[in-house]
Each structure stands twice: as C-alpha cells, then as structure tokens.
C-alpha cells in the first residue's frame, strides 16, 4: 500500500491502481487497469492541497482543457478526469517504453534515430501550436516512448493557451521551464512568444539526442544563463554540416530571427526519410480510432464534457448549483458583451478583469440580500480560435437568491451564446466516445 493511498486500491470502482511509474512535482503517475476490460492506463494523481497552496489550480484546470482538446499520435491522450476532495486523477493512455531521457542517458542516438524522434516531436508541437497551445516545458523527461518506439509528448502541466487578451501583445509572461532547455527570452523575463520558445526547446532536445550531452551546461547557474543568452555552444566535430546549420538556426538567441516551425519542416535534414505527414495528422488518427471523421476537436471536447469534474470544484463550491459551465462558439468579446448586457438587465455592476489565462467578468448586485450583496463571476477561457469555455460562479451572497436569478434570467438569457452545456447528463456520450478509444 502506497503512502499516497493510491497504490493497490481501486479508483471509482473502475480502475485498479498498480505500481508507481513516475513522479513529478505535484503528481505521481501509476500504472492501472480497467477492472472490466483489463485495458491498461496511466493514472496521474495530483495532490489538490499542494496545487492549491501554490495557486496552480487554474493551471491544472487548463491542463485538463488542453489535454482534452489535443489529439495526436505523438501526444499522450487523456481519457478521463476524476476528482475527490483531496485528489485529482487524470486517466491517460499508458505509454510503455519509458522516458526518452533514459535512452539518451545511455548514450547518444544514431543520426537517423534522432531524426525520427525529432520529426515526431516537431509534428506534435506544430499540431499544438496550430491550436494555440504551447507546451513550454519540453525536455526529454516529458517525452515518453511507446512500445513501438514512437515518441509521445506528456505533461501539459505548464502549457498554456495563446491568450492575446491577457497581455496586449500576445506574449507570455510567466517564467517557467527547466534551465538547460529554456529559451533566452524566457530567462530575461521579457514577454515571449510561446511558439518561438518551444522551438528553442526542440533545438536543445535535437542537440542532446544527437550529441548525447547538453549544448548549454555549466556548474554555475549564472554562467549557464549567460551561455544560453548568447547561444554559446559548439557542435561536436562529427555533426554533419546540414544538421549543424539547422541547430544554429534553431538556437538563435533572437526569437524574431529564429527559424519558424514551417521552415523547420521544410528543412532538408529534417525531411530526409520523412514518413508521410498524413500519418501524423489528427484527422487520419481519428479515422483509425473509428470516430467519424467529421468530428473536430471541438466536438470531441463537447462529447467529453460529461467528465465528472464535480469533485474538482468542491472546495470552491460545495454545491454544483452555484456553478455552471458551457462551451460557446462565439468570440470571447461577444460573450463578454452578452454577459455585460445580462448584468445590466438585472441591475448589477460589472467589471472586467484579466484572470491570468482567462477573462473574468465580475458582477455585483446593488441591493443587500439575505447574506449581503450577490457577487457572480463569469470566467471565459479561449480554448481554440473558434471556441470558449465559460464558467459562471456565485462568489458571494445567498444561494437561493442566486439560483432564482440564474433560473429566471441568466440561464435563459445566455441561450443564444451557449453551444453546449457541460454536465453529468452527457455521461452516456463519453461512454460512446470511450467505445472508440
Ligand atoms: P509532472 O507534471 O508532475 O512533471 P509528468 O506528467 O511529467 O508529471 O509525469 C511524471 C512521470 O511519470 C513521467 O516523467 C513519466 O516517467 C511517468 N509518466 C507520465 N505519464 C505517463 C504515461 N502516460 N505512461 C507512462 N508513464 C508516464
Ligand atoms: Mg514532468
């Protein structure tokens, strides 16, 4: 029996939890099996207290949204999310072959093998970028290998959506990532472009795969940062010329002149022996999974919306009647103005705020109710260029008063921007989806 209380137990009468596969900062990952079908999974168990203490709950919620949205042969698939009072469980695809890191630790890879991994990495990262998702923590530890030796990117804990509204210029402002792999502009705390920062990480990974050691390394951290800032590195003499040129183009300290993803994919070293890119598109994978190919990522999240997240919000909201969530196909600005219209109708004050990764519309009643003024928040998360997740929460005041307002005015008024409500009712649809997985 594991100290965490997870090992050896059965989760939600459905998954038998087995041995520990790996550990991260907030999470432990266990091997597990569906009791009924015997199918293998990896379950990431996140300690909610720890996450809450450092204020990362929003990140975790975002990780869930990201992983639900993303479906690619080189990205670890998330199947289900469950939560109890103290823990969050991510049921993921089990990736058998361990970390790419372990392979590299045993010595550098042959050029062709490194190329294959790099092609798969670029394919996964480009797929995410095209959906506005940036990983920001790309490093060999987060690259897993499946039983066929194919790469699977994991760990979206720190990834984020492009959120041009959270900063005027669309640049990300959080400093994160691991020193050895982190891009110079991320270190210097200038706002940065998530895509360019990921490209840098891919360059460091490429170097490590072929050379067998890090391009930037120093026992003194400041010295290491200095080397990264100037892109001070030397390729081993045996690096072929085309590879050397590519690495130099990627590890360009200036993000604005650094090579783009599309240019990387056209590069002659990268393209050599490239498996038909069709095999890497999300669409063709959906087909092989047997999911009708007219489903897009958007449909998939809405199908998946029956994931029971009630436990996740428990601490903030004991009662689900205080929180509602829906998906909208309208633009975030239109959603905000609709919500502001509603606030006006019910004679509430409104204030817009940047919630770090989402837009928050704060609404406050003017009259004292039974438990003081009512305060309602609407959080709008942009999850793709064409969709938003909207959370409506009661923050303060009497629940009954809120529910009356919700039922009589807010919910009916939202009708024209709601594409689909998220809730337990759709559970059966998840089962339909799971059938195809
Ligand atoms: P964290 O977000 O805390 O860093 P990770 O998602 O990186 O957690 O997982 C920690 C470790 O668990 C990984 O480095 C890997 O060894 C193992 N692991 C994670 N996901 C899987 C998976 N889907 N299949 C097998 N092992 C996994
Ligand atoms: Mg990790």
Automatic annotation (TrEMBL):
Q: Name one GO molecular function term.
A: ATP binding
Q: Give the catalysed reaction(s), semicolon-separated.
A: L-seryl-[protein] + ATP = O-phospho-L-seryl-[protein] + ADP + H(+); L-threonyl-[protein] + ATP = O-phospho-L-threonyl-[protein] + ADP + H(+)
List the Pfam families: NAF, Pkinase
Tell me the residue numbers annotated for binding ATP.
44
Sequence ranges assigned to domain Protein kinase in this UniProt record: 15-270
NAF domain sequence ranges: 290-314
Q: Which UniProt keywords apply?
A: ATP-binding, Kinase, Manganese, Nucleotide-binding, Serine/threonine-protein kinase, Transferase
Which GO biological process annotations does it have?
signal transduction
Superkingdom field: Eukaryota
Enzyme nomenclature, EC number: 2.7.11.1
Query: What is the required cofactor set for this protein?
Result: Mn(2+)
Sections of the chain in a coiled coil: none
Q: Which regions span the lipid bilayer? A: none
Family in the record:
Belongs to the protein kinase superfamily. CAMK Ser/Thr protein kinase family. SNF1 subfamily.
Name of the molecule in the record: non-specific serine/threonine protein kinase
Q: What is the lineage of its organism?
A: Eukaryota, Viridiplantae, Streptophyta, Embryophyta, Tracheophyta
């Amino acid at each position: 029996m594991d100290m965490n209380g997870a090992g050896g137990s059965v989760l939600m009468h459905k998954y038998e939890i087995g041995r520990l596969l790996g550990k991260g900062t907030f999470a432990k990952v266990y091997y597990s099996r569906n009791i009924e079908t015997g199918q293998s999974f990896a379950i990431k168990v996140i300690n909610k207290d720890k996450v809450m203490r450092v204020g990362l709950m929003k990140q975790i919620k975002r990780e869930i949204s990201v992983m639900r949205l993303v479906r690619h042969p080189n990205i670890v698939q998330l199947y289900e999310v469950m939560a109890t009072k103290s823990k969050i469980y991510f049921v993921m695809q089990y990736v058998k072959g361990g970390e790419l890191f372990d392979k590299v630790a045993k010595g550098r890879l042959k050029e062709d093998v490194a190329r294959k991994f790099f092609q798969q990495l670029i394919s996964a990262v480009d797929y995410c970028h095209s959906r506005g998702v940036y990983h920001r923590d790309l490093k060999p530890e987060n690259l897993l290998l499946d039983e066929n030796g194919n790469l699977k990117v994991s760990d979206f804990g720190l990834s984020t959506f492009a959120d041009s509204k959270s900063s005027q210029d669309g640049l990300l402002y959080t400093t994160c990532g691991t020193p050895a792999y982190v891009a110079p502009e991320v270190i210097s705390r200038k706002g940065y472009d998530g895509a360019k920062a990921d490209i840098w990480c891919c360059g460091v990974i490429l170097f490590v795969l072929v050379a067998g050691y890090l391009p930037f390394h120093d026992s003194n951290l400041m010295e290491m940062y200095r080397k990264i800032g100037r892109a001070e590195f030397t390729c081993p003499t045996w690096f072929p010329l085309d590879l050397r040129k590519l690495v130099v183009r990627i590890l360009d300290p200036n993000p604005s002149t650094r090579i783009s993803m599309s240019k990387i994919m056209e590069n002659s070293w990268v393209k050599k022996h490239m498996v038909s890119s069709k095999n890497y598109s999300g669409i063709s994978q959906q087909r092989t999974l047997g999911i009708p190919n007219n489903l897009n990522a958007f449909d998939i999240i809405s199908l998946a919306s029956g994931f029971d997240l009630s436990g996740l919000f428990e601490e903030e909201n004991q009662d689900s009647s205080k929180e509602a969530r829906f998906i909208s196909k309208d633009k975030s600005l239109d959603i905000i103005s609709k919500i502001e219209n509603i606030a006006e109708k019910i004679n509430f004050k409104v204030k817009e705020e940047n919630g770090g990764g989402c837009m928050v519309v704060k609404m406050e009643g003017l009259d004292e109710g039974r438990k003081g003024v009512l305060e309602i928040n609407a959080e709008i998360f942009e999850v793709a260029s064409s969709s938003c997740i909207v959370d409506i929460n009661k923050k303060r005041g009497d629940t009954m008063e809120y529910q009356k307002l919700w039922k009589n005015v807010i919910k009916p008024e939202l009708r024209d921007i709601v594409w689909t409500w998220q809730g337990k009712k759709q559970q059966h649809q998840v089962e339909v989806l799971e059938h195809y997985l």
